[in-house]
Amino acid sequence: MQPFPDALAEPLARWYTSPVPAPSSSRTPGPLANLPRPLDERERGRGRGRRVVSILGLAALVGLTVVLAHAVLPAMVSPVGEVAGAVATAEPAPVAAVATAAPSAPSDRSAVPSPTPSIRPTLPPTGPSAPPVAPAITALDRPDGYRAPVATPPLPEALTGYRWPLAHGRITLPFGPTAWGTRVVDGELFHDGIDIATFCGDRVVAAHAGKVLAVGRHFDDAMGWVGDLGPYYRRLDARHLWYELPIVVIVADGNGYRSIYAHFSDVAVHRGQTVKAGQFLGHEGRTGRATGCHVHYGLFSPLQRATFKVDPGVVKRMKVPRLQTARIDPLLVLPDRNAPPVSSASPVTDQPLSP
């Protein structure tokens, strides 16, 4: 190959390496130079401005709300505070003032008299030294359904209208301490009623007029137990022991006391029935765990707060409550019939009410 001529190499080298002139500022603008900028470029600056304005406006609104709250709320809260204070005192509204209010309020508000506060009910004192407060006699204990407010049970000496449930029976087990008892009083086993016997099938009559509360073997709810009968009932259900209980009649005597008649062979009354003194209830029997035919007659008031303890062995075996409402001696209310004799033989008595 022949070498490139020197005469041409030098001009070409100067042309290739010569600097490119910088564009001049006085350059004539092209035809697209005056077109508007794209939309996204124009809105970019405006968006930042709008956000700043929104933040400032929100801050001003919050400040104005705080100022108004401090200025207005105290006037609105004051009456509410007064009402809340009145409610907190648990003062009942005066019923008499409401009942006698005039149909239209007087035009002069200053002339309206302030209602007299009603007298608060006197509440019983509380604490260890507070005396027990007995409930009122319920409709169950009054044959006529009247609810008499009674603070304490009537004294046995004030009870009248009683007669013997067996006309010619003998007392086989009296009321009081005995080895045959299933209750505990002053540390001794105690019989909580009297057992009267004649012969199997004798007629048993009501000792007092009243209303029948329970009949049959489901009687414990009216017996004056103090405590939960649930475990006792579950035991009877689980072991199918209901038919080993005595047949019982419980009558509310209408004077705050209840008469209990137990160990019938059959009965002739029903729950809710009103009976008269001397009315036939059923026949003398030995249902339950009894040693012979007899009637267990007990008397107690549901208003009584005193209690008898139950033999711990009976509580453990039968799952009954540890306490029952205290009983009174029925001989305190039954008429004297020339001192009916107390049998000297082995007592015909009742065992615990369930096995």
Compact summary:
With 355 residues, the protein is of the alpha+beta class. Helix content is 24%, strand content 19%.
Strand content: 15-25%
What's the CATH topology label of one domain?
Glucose Permease (Domain IIA)
Number of strands: 16
| Radius of gyration using CA atoms only | 49 Å
Structural class: alpha+beta
Q: Estimate percent helicity.
A: 10-25%
Shape-level CATH architecture of one domain? Distorted Sandwich
CATH superfamily of one domain: Glucose Permease (Domain IIA)
What ranges have pLDDT less than 50 throughout 5 or more consecutive residues?
Answer: 77-140, 142-148, 339-346
Principal-axes shape call: elongated
The helix/strand order is: HHHEEEEEEEEHEEEEEEHEE
- Quaternary structure of the protein: single chain
Specify the number of helices: 5
* The CATH C-level class name of one domain: Mainly Beta
Distance between the amino and carboxyl termini: 139 Å
Task: Describe what you observe in this structure.
- The chain is α+β, with helices and mostly antiparallel strands and 355 residues long.
- The protein has a domain at 159-332: Glucose Permease (Domain IIA) (Distorted Sandwich).
- It is 24% helix and 19% strand.
- Strands 1, 5, 6, 7, 9, 10, 11, 12, 13 and 16 form a 10-stranded antiparallel sheet that branches. The chain has a 6-stranded antiparallel sheet with strand order 2-4-3-14-15-8.
- A hairpin with a 5-residue loop joins strand 9 (247-252) and strand 10.
- It is elongated, with a radius of gyration of 49 Å.
- Residues 77-140, 142-148 and 339-346 have low confidence and may be disordered.
